[in-house]
Amino acid sequence: MSVYKLDAQPTTWQPDAPKDASPSTARQIIRYLRWAGTILIIVSAIGFMLQGHADLLPAYRYWLGLAFTLLLCAGGLICAYGLKETTGARLFFALGVAFLPVQVSQVSAMLYNFSQGDLALQLPYSWLQFSQVKPSLIAIDFAITTVLLVLVSYTGFSMLARRQVKTLMTVMLLGNSLLLLPVRDGFWMPLIIACQFFALRAGEQGLRQDSAMHLFEGMAARLLIGLPLLILLGRSVLHPVSPALVVTLISLIAVIGVIDIKRYTDSALAIYIGQTIGSVAALVAWLIVVDSMSGFGRGHYGILLPLSLLLFILSAYVDYYATAYRFLGALSALGLVVGALLDEQYLSPVLALATGIVLSLAGLRYREKTSFFAGHLCFLSGILFYCRYAIDAYNHAPWLSSIGLGLVVLLAASYLEKRQQVILSRVDAYLNELRSWG
User: Taking the model in full, what pTM does it have?
Assistant: First the structure.
């Protein structure tokens, strides 16, 4: 008698799971089409600007650029309301926001040429010259650009990063406002670039706290708010370059390479290369500053002393060779202080005392003997410099100085006899602490 098992569950046929979960061919084709269209639009716009079109009046060049921006916005509206397709709408408005700083830069060129007149710096590129534009037309262009900047930027950022619209708009409007200023000289331009860089940097640090800003749309929005600074940098290098501008640009490279690179990558190699480039840039900027201050006396050690401070500042941010930076900074400070004292330069003893205190505190902070003893030597050098005044006083009244010295010696002996155990214990603790330092 055979026994049948009836507790088995009936099996049903199920289709096999797809082996390839990658996007379909149609989606890939759509993505390629979007990339191709974006590249064509950008290349065409850049080509229009670079060709010059000398036969076009400056006002017409602005209006053609304005029409191009409006066409991009129209494409975004067609995608959003006609085709009900949000990805294309975001792309069109992102391109529209990207070309807004170009419009602002053109209006800035008009304002600059109108305000400076014959004194305006004319670049040898026709596509950057916007002279002989009527004031009424400048006012109309300014009003249209302002309205378009607010409306298109708000729409574009609302599509890309709705939660951060306020921050994005603030940074975008500030950057374009600085880009609009009719300034081209070598004094104000570095200041404007520095203000725009640190404002962008502050906004970027706040945006990085939002995880949504690390997505593709968020990254695009963060890139868009940096375009006014990029245009300002590109425009500034086309004008006569001043030492202040060179120092500012190199200093920005130093800040990005030493500090900001750690916020964007975890690669040890990238951080090492970036911090090396940033450190070299900081030292080059310092050399340019020293060279420009040659009128104050090239051999004055007080001008050279900031090198040591710069090395200590770099050591607080770099991830590699921080100890070596502080070692070189301490030795250079000691050498500069001793040189200033031997040369009897102005305020050299005060400089020696101040440097000694700072280096000693740095040695305590980092528990390093080099900085600590270099600070002691600087402080002692400053004290010895003032000892010559005591020697002069002794020569004028030796008997009075001897009495004072005798009193000090007797009081010191009494103090040592009363506190010798405490002093010895503290000296032992001090030496043991020094032995544990690097």
Answer: 0.74
Q: How many domains does the chain have?
A: 1
Query: What span, in angstroms and rounded, lies between the C-alpha atoms of 113 and 121?
Result: 8
- Give the helix ranges, DSSP H, for 259-321: 268-292, 301-304, 306-315
340 falls within a domain: no
**pLDDT tens across the length of the chain (438 residues):** 444 444 444 444 344 444 444 557 888 888 888 888 888 888 877 776 666 555 666 667 778 888 888 888 899 899 888 888 888 888 898 998 998 998 898 888 888 878 777 666 666 666 566 667 788 888 998 999 999 999 999 999 999 988 899 999 999 999 999 988 888 777 788 899 999 999 899 888 888 888 888 888 888 899 999 999 988 888 887 777 788 888 999 999 999 999 989 888 888 999 999 999 999 999 999 888 877 766 544 456 666 778 888 999 999 899 888 889 999 999 988 888 888 888 777 778 888 888 889 998 888 888 888 888 888 898 888 888 877 766 666 666 666 667 776 777 777 777 677 677 776 777 777 677 777 776
Largest CA distance in the chain: 136
Structural domain boundaries enclosing 164 = 31-238
- SS3 of residue 226 by DSSP: coil
Q: How many CB atoms lie within 10 A of CB 278?
A: 25
Q: For residue 13, is it within any domain?
A: no
Please report whether residue 436 resides in a domain.
no
The answer to whether residue 120 sits within a structural domain is yes
CA 287 vs CA 248, 298, 313, 358: distances in Å = 13, 12, 16, 23
